[in-house]
Every structure is written in structure tokens, then in C-alpha cells.
Amino acid sequence: KYEIENENGDTIYEIKGKWLSWGDKLTVKKPDGTLALVIDQKQMSFRSRYAILRNGEEVAEVSKKSGFFKQKLELEFVDGTEYEVKGNFFDREFEFKNGRKTIAEVSKKWLSLSDTYGVRIAEGEDVDVDVILSAVVIIDLMLQEEEEEE
């Protein structure tokens, strides 16, 4: 279970996982219960991949790609827009980048009772904030899975 809050501390999304599902499947709901997005782990894949769906249609995918020296994470929208996720995953400090341009910065707060991240979208960027926030949840899931495997 995750809660996403705005800068004022108001809950803007509640994310819950489904029990008894094959792979991770989470619903992203507004506080009034309206379904905003669904996060669905893609099974039968050589690498970790999650689809982000809106109204039953896939709008983006977060995937782990193998790099020569290190892993790479990527957020790809169905329109072809791609953001590479770079940074220090061990310290949970990373950025969404489109080429050299930073679209969003993510930083984990360490002195917290639960996993708490700060997300800053670059000013003037026309991005789907809901998808970026969902991608941060997915990346947290991927990093937790890695830690459990070690």
C-alpha cells in the first residue's frame, strides 16, 4: 500500500496491491475512489517490466534493461517518448532524463517510518505527472525485489 501526497501533505492518490494475482498488480485511486491508473507487472519476460494503464489502455511501460556495466531503467510511453532513469539506485536518488534534459528528480527521505520519496518535476515540462509518480512506485518495487533476491 502506498499513499502519494502533494507538497501540502494532502493525499492525492492511494495505491493498493491485489492479493492472489500473478505478479504485482496495483490500483492507483484518487481519494474519492476514482480509478486513475493500474500498474500491472508483465509476466513471461526476460527482464522486469511493468505496464501503466489508463482506462484499460496501456499508456507507458517501465522496464529494466541490461547494460554492459550496470542496469538501466526506462520509462517509455506508447507515443514513443522515452525517459531513461539514471542515478544512485542504492541511495534511491535518481532522475528521469530525456537525452541530457532532466524531466524529474526523485529523492528518498531516510529518516521516515515508511518509504517516503520527494519528486520534483522540472518547471515548464509538459509531462504526465500521474505516470511519473506511478513509475516511481514501480521503481521502488523493482529495487525492493532486488534486495529480497540478494
- Topology, number of strands: 11
Q: Cα distance, first to last residue?
A: 23 Å
Mean pLDDT: 86
Helix and strand element order: EEEEEEEEEEEH
Envelope shape: globular
Helix content percent band = 10-25%
Estimate what percentage of residues fall within beta strands: over 45%
Query: Helical element count?
Result: 1
What summary fits the major beta sheet?
A: 11 strands, antiparallel
Give Rg in angstroms.
Answer: 15 Å
User: How does the helix and strand content classify structurally?
Assistant: mainly beta
Spans of 5+ residues with little confidence (pLDDT < 50)?
none
Strand order of the largest sheet: 1-2-3-4-5-6-7-8-9-10-11
What does this structure look like?
- The structure is a single chain.
- 14% of the residues lie in helices and 49% in strands.
- The protein is mainly beta and 150 residues long.
- The chain has an eleven-stranded antiparallel β-sheet, with helices on one face.
Outline of this structure?
The protein is mainly β and 150 residues long. The chain is built from 1 helix and 11 strands.
List its salient traits.
single chain, mainly beta, about 150 residues, globular
Please specify the SSE layout and strand pairing.
Layout: E1 2-5, E2 11-17, E3 25-29, E4 35-41, E5 49-54, E6 57-66, E7 71-77, E8 82-88, E9 93-98, E10 101-109, E11 116-121, H1 129-149
